[in-house]
Each structure stands twice: as C-alpha cells, then as structure tokens.
C-alpha cells in the first residue's frame, strides 16, 4: 500500500472472484467513486430536460470515465477464482 515505497498503491483492487475491480482501497478511489455517483445523480435530476437518449449517452460517457480510472489506477484485471 502507500507505506511501501516499492509497491504500487492501487486505488481499486482486483476482485477475488471474476474479472474487474472491487470497492476502492484508497481515499482517492473513494473520491473517484463519489464523483461518479454525484454525476449520475445529477443526470437523473436533469433527465427530463436531457431526454432519454442524451441521458443514456451521458451515462455511458461517465461510466467509461470510471472504467478508465479503474484501468489506470487499479490492479491489472484478470480472471480470478479465489485466493491468489
């Protein structure tokens, strides 16, 4: 984690089962997740003004942003089934 200089501090750990990332491990990861949740909530509030298709496009773009942050700041993804 952050205390070890030689080890990279991943914001998002790999899931134990399956492929992808789990809950954030660091405060930076939690900030990214909170900003994502706030952006989704803002989109929901303004969904009527945006229209369905624009809301779907907006949600897809911010979801790709979250996925990109997980890819850049998370453990390398691979299929896992239990302990390492």
Structure description:
This protein has helices at about 25-45, 45-50, 50-75, and strands at about 15-20, 80. With about 80 residues, it is mainly alpha-helical. A two-stranded antiparallel sheet has the order 1-2. The two termini are about 15 Å apart. Keywords: Membrane, Transmembrane, Transmembrane helix. This is DUF2631 domain-containing protein.
User: What is the share of helical residues?
Assistant: 40-55%
Largest sheet: 2 strands, antiparallel
The domain tally reads 1
Radius of gyration: 16 Å
Distance between the termini: 17 Å
Oligomer: single chain
Give the secondary structure arrangement, pairings included.
Elements: E1 17-18, H1 27-45, H2 47-50, H3 52-73, E2 80-81
Please give a quick description of this structure:
With 84 residues, the protein is mainly alpha-helical. The chain has helices spanning 27-45, 47-50, 52-73, and strands at 17-18, 80-81.
């Amino acid at each position: 984690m952050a205390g070890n200089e030689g080890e990279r501090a991943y914001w998002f750990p790999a899931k134990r089962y399956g492929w992808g990332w789990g809950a954030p491990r660091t405060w930076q990861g939690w900030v990214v997740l909170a900003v994502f949740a706030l952006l989704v909530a803002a989109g929901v509030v303004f969904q009527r003004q945006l229209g369905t298709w624009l809301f779907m496009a907006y949600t897809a773009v911010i979801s790709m942003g979250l996925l990109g942050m997980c890819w850049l700041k998370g453990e390398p993804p691979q299929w896992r089934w239990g302990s390492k």
